[in-house]
Amino acid sequence: MKILIVGSGGREHAIAWKVAKSSKVTKIYCAPGNAGIAEYAECVDIGAMEFDKLAAFAKEHQIDLTVVGMDDPLVGGIVDVFEAQGLRVFGPRKNAAILEGSKAFSKDLMKKYGIPTAAYENFDDPEKALAYLETASMPIVLKADGLALGKGVLICETLEEAKEGVKSIMMDKKFGSAGNQMVIEEFMTGREVSVLSFVDGKTIRIMTSAQDHKRAQDGDKGLNTGGMGTFSPSPFYTEEVDTFCREHIYQKTVDAMAAEGRAFKGIIFFGLMLTEKGPRVLEYNARFGDPEAQVVLPRMKNDIVEVFEACVDGTLDKIELEFEDNAAVCVVLASEGYPVQYKKGFEIQGLEAFKGQEDKFVFHAGSKFADGKIVTNGGRVLGVTALGKNLKEARANAYRAAEEVDFENKYCRSDIGKAIDEA
Ligand code: AMP
Ligand code: GLY
User: Do 262 and 291 fall within a single domain?
Assistant: First the structure.
């Protein structure tokens, strides 16, 4: 089979690495890809939002299956464009990707179908939102409705802060049109867990759990980022939590989407918070997590292409997912200054230490070729993942491996996976 992967980050690198292991695959393309993905795939210079060009490429190169890694093209309707041209594609249609694309939609869905989540109100009028705040208790959480690169969530401690937040989201349009509507919701506390799943429209198969570290600095301080590191499995995702989520969250979400005439095929990423009152959905995403994919996929035993095909064909009930009985930790190596301001273009050294290795990997998030060298090309540059027989070992291995690569202004958190000491 010939596979086209759409995207350019560490997630798409992890997908490409896993697809390359499939016995069914003869050739992989990635659009636009990056310098690391180029080891497994022929990178094609077409942007992820250029749907017509991508579809034309898929036709011309007789691609058997296109796998979309990123949220923007999914929410924008890339799957509908491919399907209209008779092309096989893995991912939700536009009317289902709204599960990630609109937080107001997903909150209303959860309310209608009794899926546990934080109490909330939706607003499309800033005056009404401001009036509502006067009666609300603090802290409170403000969320821009649409996609905002993971930055559209504000946790406000005081009424003044919350009012400023409403102004910046809805009036100053800090996150652009993502702020045309907003959700104001109850502040919850608890540990966060990411659970990824494959869905074929009716059947859902749950992958192993993971935990992300979203803040830029040690001790969960600093600004929110796309994710500074992950570990899998999460020791806090116990059997009891799993049982609750299977009963109240996972299948219910899939059935709710189908009942709404929005059958979901692809990946549903459940962002969960384990509160005192039980697990609650913080958010849905319609794609693999990044860097969650970088710890989950290296532990997956299945041929991923078979699973992708089962989702497209509606035969996922015939597949059982299997994961290694081990652990993985991913440490993101970023450019100093990320997520605000940073320099790029520095040569990356030490990548050869990872060639052909099966227990440590370097997934490129922001890299490119320049004058025959691989240089940094983003805020998040690399995800260094290592396996171990348990989380402690995986963590030690990941930090050792992270020492083997270097570039000017390299920055990483030193406490990825430290929470496991408390488990
Ligand atoms: P989201 O994009 O909705 O996952 O929000 C980003 C981050 O904001 C989450 O990972 C949480 O850390 C935090 N967050 C979102 N909603 C809430 C909430 N209702 N209570 C507390 N923290 C939240
Ligand atoms: N790591 C969080 C996300 O992919 O949304």
Answer: yes
